[in-house]
Amino acid sequence: MAYIAGHTPAVLKGHAARTAEDCAAYLLRHIKPDNYILDIGCGPGTITLGFAKRVPEGRVVGIDISPELMAKDTQEAQEQGIGNVTYQVGDIFHLPFSDATFDITHCHQVLCHLTDPKAAMKEMIRVTQPGGIVAAREAIFESMMIYPSTPALDAWKNKLQQMHLAKGQHPDAGKTLHHWALQLGIKPERIRSSAGNFCYSGREQREWWGSVWEERSISKEGEDSMVGPGIATKEEHSEISQEWKRWQGKEEAWFGMMHGEVLVWV
Ligand SMILES: C[S@@+](CC[C@H](N)C(=O)[O-])C[C@H]1O[C@@H](n2cnc3c(N)ncnc32)[C@H](O)[C@@H]1O
User: Fold this and answer.
1) Residue 203, domain CATH
2) How many domains does the chain have?
3) Which atom of ligand 1 is nearest to the CA of 43?
4) Is 4 within a domain?
5) What is the average pLDDT value for the chain, to the nearest integer?
6) pLDDT digits (tens, 9 = 90+) for 146-199
7) Is residue 2 part of a domain?
8) Which of 59, 88, 173, 245 sits in a 20 to 30 Å window from 127, CA-based?
9) Is the confidence at residue 12, as pLDDT, over 70?
10) Who's near 67: CB < 8 A, 6+ residues apart?
11) Which residue is closest in CA terms to ligand 1's atom 20?
12) Exposed e or buried b per residue across 195-218, where buried means at least 16 C-beta atoms within 10 angstroms of its C-beta
């Protein structure tokens, strides 16, 4: 299945700023230096590299459905001289690994983009060793807070959710991760839920976040996914790019969003 946001420069600018420290803090203390880790839907692979640095005696594999990204990530790891990470093309629904292969199987912001995230989680559990950990962190779109907001930015939040729902995806995946694990037969005592936040304020962060959305909103992929299915008119869509530009210029601008996190001991 295609990734609906597309791997445009603006999308990648957003993802490539992520680190293992910012996005996987809930998992880091469970990582042992010799662990074998799988990072699924790794995108630009910055979180993956963070894991690799934490397993000097272990190994990390990053997989994604995008061959272009996997080639770029491989080059980046080589340039940084990180030898214990490899990247390969792969689909979360058909992981190219035997049962019980990894100590830790991780994904960040992937399940929310899928139509059958429970099947994906089942596959993550399959490739994880007994006693190992499946870890996932996903957004809860309904928790997005934009300050100061405007009617157009408020409407955009709803439209973004509608866009994902129209594709059968799960924009609030973060709050149901533990429930999916329960439904897959994992015992409650082997599941730990937590939550973490994205919060951007101050000049550097608001300009970065606002420009990501300013650029995403004017991209062809952004237009196709909003205007194509009739969620926004062309005018509303191009206006939102200007709204994000204005928002970045405000000293007091602040953005927050909660993410749900789950650790499952297989
Ligand atoms: C929102 S990005 C997250 C990237 C990265 N995990 C991060 O947080 O920076 C979602 C990624 O999942 C990948 N993806 C989507 N469907 C996938 C699938 N079926 N199997 C593997 N990767 C997939 C996309 O190509 C994209 O790079």
Assistant:
1) 3.40.50.150
2) 1
3) 27
4) no
5) 92
6) 999 999 999 999 989 999 999 999 999 999 999 999 999 999 999 999 999 999
7) no
8) 173
9) no
10) 89
11) 91
12) ebebebeeeebbeebbbbbbbbbb
